[in-house]
Design brief:
Two copies of one chain form a homodimer.
Chain A lengths: L1 E5 L3 H12 L3 E6 L3 H11 L2 E3 L11 E4 L3 H9 L7 E4 L15 E7 L16 E5 L2 H14 L3 E3 L2 H32 L7 H10 L5 H4 L3 H4 L2 H10 L3 H21 L1
């Protein structure tokens, strides 16, 4: 299967490297930014371009991984052909392709990808959707090869899944950032937190987050909460602390 | 070494079970709540009481793991003796013992503990502090036996460490809870998020949280941010989303 990549960011990088690993042939990389296109094509040993008009028509699958903000615009500039076109955006509907392509779908890997970090692809949940049952089958085969963990999901539900992922991943990582910032101010090495962070993640394989919750907010220990609020000098961190402590307490009260 | 436990909650449970595992002898458990005292003493096969006045004086180490809100009150009721007295509270100073005991200190494990979940104790960072160098040495030995990862830390710095842990663990777990709630509303199994949650934690062993950050807020993708805000019907979750997205964007701008 010959693949063209449209985009050379985090998702495009990790997916295309995995595709080559499982025997798919990436023939061309497009990126708006020449340096990104060149870098990724170098890792893949394939052609690259910064012009959508120069995309080869000789591929079976076109994978679009660009910022959501420009996805519709990019699709609008594509030359239609009989190949299968997919995007990888959690929040964007499949029907962006409607009227533009005959065969289209979505291939959404639920994972956080960075160019600089290899991640084990086996087991990552891939959520697929396609315009026809035949192309659902094609995308299931692709995802099966990439990760072995495939599920069908509508655009409507995928958008909720992506929102949940923002909480579970992006906001979580920001909690790590804020914690690290506090430690840096006191000269305590940030890696002291790693065993705690690992166990916090590991714990919810066994307990629900409600059962796993510990700390001053779940005990509604006003004494500690007020002392900790007073320690925070950054007004934004104070707001985060206050809002999340209230939210934890509220969830706990509702679950009782 | 003979140990008396004052408290039978999450921390007391996991620490005392580990103490027995490494050959320390837990001789008595106190809890305000009879059922908790009885349950833990059953797991440890030792005596229990609900009266502080009935604590045995025949121990070398008294470990106090009670809610921060009642810690000072509990210490005020203790009969002084020549043994070593420690508490395990991240946010509370060591000098709560001053004037009450001759020998005292703090043994603070930086981890999230639940009664129902065994956690690997090797490698958990223990932060210790004691009134005399001799008792620093005793507590270092104890922590060395329990985890092998021991550091000295003042009450002042420990309080910052505990605040950082609230962000890295308690608030992180709450992000998992909110994500799970969103999925439950759509009938999507919460365990779909586990590979993402695991990778989010694993990632910061290699990259800093600033380097690891992905998602709409770091790209400041207003299109996605506004659509996701509109999807959130719970006003509290909307506030959390808004505040954290702004905070991510602000940190990123400062780091540039």
């Amino acid at each position: 299967m010959k693949v063209v990549l449209i985009g050379a960011g985090n998702v495009a990088t990790r997916l295309s490297l995995r595709m080559q690993q499982v025997g798919m042939e990436v023939v061309q990389v497009y990126s708006h930014t020449a340096s990104s296109a060149e870098l990724l094509s170098g890792r893949l040993n394939c052609a690259w371009t910064t012009e959508l008009a120069e995309l080869t028509s000789e591929a079976d699958l076109y994978l679009i991984s660009v910022k959501d903000a420009v996805l519709a615009e990019v699709i609008g500039q594509l030359k239609p052909n009989r190949a299968l076109w997919v995007h990888t955006a959690g929040s964007m509907p499949m029907d962006l392709f409607e009227g533009q392509m005959e065969r289209y779908g979505v291939l959404y890997p639920l994972q956080t990808f960075s160019k600089e970090r290899a991640v084990r692809m086996e087991g990552i949940p891939f959520f697929v959707e396609a315009h026809t049952p035949e192309d659902v089958a094609v995308l299931c085969q692709v995802a099966e090869a990439l990760s072995g963990n495939v599920q069908l999901l509508s655009s409507e539900k995928r958008r909720t899944l992506h929102l949940a992922a923002v909480f579970a991943c992006n906001f979580t990582n920001h909690m790590y950032a804020l914690a690290g910032k506090l430690l840096a101010e006191e000269g305590i090495p940030a890696d002291s937190l790693l065993p705690l962070i690992d166990e916090t993640a590991a714990k919810i394989h066994q307990l629900s987050p409600a059962e796993a919750q510990t700390g001053p907010a779940i005990r509604y220990d006003k004494n500690v909460i007020n002392k900790q609020l007073a320690m925070l000098t950054d007004p934004d961190m104070k707001s985060v602390y206050q809002l999340l402590s209230q939210s934890i307490h509220k969830e706990a009260t509702q679950n009782e």
